[in-house]
């Protein structure tokens, strides 16, 4: 059975973000095919996609390598997110469906509950799902794709500290959803811009490869689990 290239791409990207493939390291088709349990064809296609996304570069005499972004490039990503997430929220206020609102409100309820209880272990995941759903509600495939790529690259380049006041952070999420539900695009944009600006302060540029991220994978045979891939 042929494994889709997008599934291989997701697996390689996830491992780059997790630090399994170190910045600057070579990515040979043969080793990657063996690692993910696929042929070289989907690996080759995946590497082309990852190069277009900025995770991989092709170097003379070395071939495909994990990119080594500069601090300025990393800073630019946060600035772009600060511009695009508010735009997405404004679009969501005009284009969201009842299904989007149901999911967003459910995430806010869960987030607020966990924040009040002080169980912050899964708050980051809930926050990621919230912003992913908000982007989906924009109804713009191009904007959704750009925001998704930004989230991956920011997660690769930055460590994010837990908000000093998680309850306040989820109150902000709730206010954004209220504005989206009312169709108030300008308020949704303004609230999201403020929320994104505050969240940016919690980002710390990663220097090198954190040891705990290296523990992500021990087994050199890392077959692609298609059922678990979401992107």
From TrEMBL:
Pfam hit, one: FCD
Q: Which CDD domains match?
A: WHTH_GntR
Q: Give start and end of each HTH gntR-type domain.
A: 2-69
Keywords assigned by UniProt?
Answer: DNA-binding, Transcription, Transcription regulation
Bias class Basic and acidic residues marks the residues at: 209-218
Q: Does the keyword Electron transport apply?
A: no
Where does the signal peptide begin and end? Answer: none
The protein, known as: GntR family transcriptional regulator
Protein source organism: Streptomyces dubilierae
């Amino acid at each position: 059975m042929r494994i889709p290239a997008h599934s291989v791409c997701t697996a390689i990207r996830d491992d780059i973000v997790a630090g399994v493939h170190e910045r600057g390291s070579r990515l040979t088709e043969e080793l990657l095919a063996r690692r993910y349990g696929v042929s070289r064809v989907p690996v080759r296609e995946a590497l082309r996609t990852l190069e277009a996304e900025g995770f991989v570069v092709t170097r003379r005499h070395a071939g495909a390598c994990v990119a080594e972004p500069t601090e300025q490039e990393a800073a630019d990503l946060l600035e772009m997110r600060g511009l695009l997430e508010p735009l997405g929220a404004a679009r969501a206020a005009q284009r969201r469906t009842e299904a989007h609102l149901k999911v967003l409100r459910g995430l806010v309820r869960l987030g607020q509950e966990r924040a009040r209880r002080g169980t912050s272990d899964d708050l980051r995941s809930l926050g990621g799902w919230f912003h992913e759903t908000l982007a989906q509600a924009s109804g713009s495939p191009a904007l959704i794709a750009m925001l998704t790529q930004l989230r991956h690259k920011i997660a690769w380049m930055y460590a994010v500290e837990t908000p000093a006041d998680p309850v306040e952070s989820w109150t902000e999420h709730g206010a954004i959803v209220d504005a989206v539900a009312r169709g108030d695009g300008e308020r949704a944009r303004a609230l999201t811009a403020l929320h994104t600006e505050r969240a940016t302060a919690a980002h710390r540029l990663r220097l090198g490869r954190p040891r705990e991220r290296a523990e992500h994978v021990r087994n050199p045979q890392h077959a692609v689990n298609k059922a678990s891939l979401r992107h």
